[in-house]
């Protein structure tokens, strides 16, 4: 998509030039109070990331990408593996880590982990190994019954032929054996030796099988429970210490807040579910049908494009809360959003350079707001999908899905925000109330020792002017801290917007004559800020 980035920059410059000095100086002021003595719930949310693309060592940014992954050192990094060969053939892709392309009776039968090993070992070297999550996305295409394709993506998915799921369970067990037990015995009785004893602990069973893009199609949660049980029983015979979860439900049902699939899975699963996974993308309507795609395109033309993304977050909070509540009924199972991003689909008309806005200033506001909603809902992890989208792959021009810019090798603004959020927000802290409303969202968390508080402020003010799409409107934010005194010299401010990339600066601090403490900060359109304060 040549020229999109420069077109975005041109519109961005025009929009800035169109604002008068007075418009920039006299931005609307939003005031509110954070009440440190009004505690809500424990805080235990963090943001991670994941990867499905194999990054070729010849990629010009290979070293940079893994340097930034190592700097982030994400817990619960999700390694998304095993696309099937039918999908690879249909898209011209060659990087889907197909380890068993032919059935045992075929003359070309073999196991080949070369490409997948490269990916897994590089990820483990640069992530938190103890919480690394291996997702077995699907099985080889020859295990599928192609007379029963999936309804949405028939070219690359379908039901398995063996409805006992033993063949699928054997395949998954061999993957576990390869990485955790030094190898496995294949279908012909031959020991395939890997030499790997990596002790990968977390295994996510299948991916979006309720929808089935390039994957196994399993129509109901009850059927998925049968598959899950067969796979987990087999895996735990090979390695009893692993923790397993699912169902990695697609983003589509979140439109209806439909928990039927997950509820059936939890009700019928006999094997332990160690964690529950769901997906959330903010452009869900784009996947439903050609009519849905047409409707989405029309929406994008008729109103500020960003409105649907922010409204989607408004809606998703209820679904998150219902998922967490349901999981609590089955033993307080932690809930992870194992894939999320501003937008998923690259098939509808895109008027701007999507990587520039979805991972730039608008991406920071979107992610900050989602982080607040997820935290209040009790979600354990948000996993931003994916970390890096290589430019040298035929379908991987998805700079908008990448935390690292695949044209420069440098981090997008969203990467810097994730790093700061994970570094400042304390596991086991306590969320407290605030009375902000409208354009400014605030999340405030006290540290467990009650001697420190960190605030996230997000500006989601939408401009109705076409020239300001994905630029938004500047806001002055006045924050009053009620319930303690703040040590002024200790205050730290990080701003993430189109003018600031998270460099620490001194906040505008004013002690209120009415008591408490007052801070003023300026947030450009779709900006986010972090305020780190020590309390007396």
Features:
536 residues; alpha/beta; Immunoglobulin-like; TIM Barrel; ten-stranded mixed sheet; 22 strands
Q: Could you explain how this protein is built, in words?
A:
- The chain is an alpha/beta fold and 536 residues long.
- It folds into 2 domains: 24-40 and 432-534, Golgi alpha-mannosidase II (Immunoglobulin-like, Sandwich), CATH 2.60.40; 45-424, Alpha-Beta Barrel (TIM Barrel).
- 30% of the residues lie in helices and 24% in strands.
- It is built from 13 helices and 22 strands.
- It has a 10-stranded mixed sheet, covered by helices on one side. The protein has an 8-stranded parallel barrel with strand order 2-3-4-9-10-11-12-13, surrounded by 6 helices. It has a two-stranded antiparallel sheet with strand order 5-6.
- Helix 8 (260-268) links the parallel strand 10 and strand 11 (275-281).
- Helix 3 packs across helix 5 (114-126), helix 7 (221-238) crosses helix 8 (260-268) and helix 10 packs parallel to helix 12.
Summarize, please.
The protein has 536 residues and is of the alpha/beta class. The protein has helices spanning 4-18, 21-25, 62-72, 85-91, 114-126, 166-180, 221-238, 260-268, 290-302, 307-329, 354-358, 361-377, 413-424, and strands spanning 28-42, 46-51, 78-81, 133-136, 144-149, 158-160, 183-185, 191-193, 202-205, 243-249, 275-281, 335-341, 381-384, 430-434, 440-446, 452-459, 475-482, 492-496, 501-505, 508-511, 517-523, 528-534.
């Amino acid at each position: 998509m040549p020229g999109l980035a420069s077109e975005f920059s041109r519109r961005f410059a025009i929009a800035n030039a169109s604002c008068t000095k007075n418009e920039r100086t006299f931005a609307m002021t939003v005031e509110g109070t954070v009440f440190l003595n009004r505690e809500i719930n424990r805080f235990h949310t963090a943001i991670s990331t994941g990867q499905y693309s194999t990054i070729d060592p010849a990629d010009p940014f290979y070293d940079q990408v893994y340097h930034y992954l190592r700097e982030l050192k994400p817990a619960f990094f999700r390694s998304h593996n095993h696309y099937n060969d039918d999908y690879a053939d249909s898209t011209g892709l060659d990087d889907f880590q197909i380890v068993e392309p032919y059935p045992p009776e075929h003359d070309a039968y073999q196991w080949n982990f070369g490409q997948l090993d490269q990916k897994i070992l590089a990820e483990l070297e640069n992530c938190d190994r103890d919480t690394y999550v291996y997702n077995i996305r699907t099985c080889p295409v020859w295990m599928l019954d192609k007379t029963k394709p999936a309804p949405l993506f028939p070219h690359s998915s379908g039901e398995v032929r063996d409805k006992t799921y033993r063949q699928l369970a054997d395949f998954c067990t061999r993957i576990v054996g390869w990485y955790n037990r030094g190898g496995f015995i294949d279908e012909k009785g031959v020991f395939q030796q890997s030499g790997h004893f990596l002790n990968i602990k977390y295994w996510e069973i299948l991916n979006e099988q309720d929808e089935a893009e390039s994957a196994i199609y399993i129509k109901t949660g009850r059927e998925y429970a049968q598959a899950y049980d067969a796979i987990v029983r087999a895996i735990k015979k090979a390695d009893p210490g692993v923790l397993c979860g699912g169902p990695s439900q697609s983003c589509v049902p979140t439109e209806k807040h439909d928990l039927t699939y997950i509820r059936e899975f939890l009700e019928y699963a006999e094997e332990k579910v160690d964690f529950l996974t769901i997906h959330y993308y903010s452009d869900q309507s784009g996947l439903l049908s050609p009519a849905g795609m047409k409707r989405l395109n029309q929406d994008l033309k008729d109103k500020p494009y960003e409105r649907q993304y922010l409204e989607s977050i408004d809606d998703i909070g209820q679904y998150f809360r219902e998922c967490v509540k349901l999981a609590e009924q089955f033993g307080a199972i932690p809930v992870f959003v194992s894939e999320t991003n501003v937008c998923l689909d690259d098939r509808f008309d895109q008027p701007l350079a999507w990587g520039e806005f979805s991972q730039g200033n608008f991406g920071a506001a979107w992610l900050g707001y989602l982080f607040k909603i997820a935290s209040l809902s009790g979600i354990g992890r948000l996993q931003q999908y994916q970390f890096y989208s290589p430019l040298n792959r035929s379908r991987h021009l998805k700079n908008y899905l990448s935390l690292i810019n695949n044209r420069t090798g440098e981090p997008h603004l969203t990467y810097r925000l994730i790093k700061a959020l994970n570094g400042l927000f304390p596991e086991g802290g306590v969320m407290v109330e605030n009375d902000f409303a409208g354009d400014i969202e605030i999340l405030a968390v006290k540290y467990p020792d009650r001697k420190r508080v960190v605030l996230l402020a997000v500006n989601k003010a939408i401009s109705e002017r076409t020239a300001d799409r994905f630029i938004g409107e500047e806001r002055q934010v006045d924050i009053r801290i009620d319930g303690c005194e703040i040590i002024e010299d200790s205050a730290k401010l990080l701003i993430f917007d189109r003018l600031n990339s998270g460099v620490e600066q001194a906040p505008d601090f004013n002690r209120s004559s009415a008591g408490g403490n007052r801070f003023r900060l300026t947030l450009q359109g779709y900006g986010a800020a972090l305020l780190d304060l020590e309390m007396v």
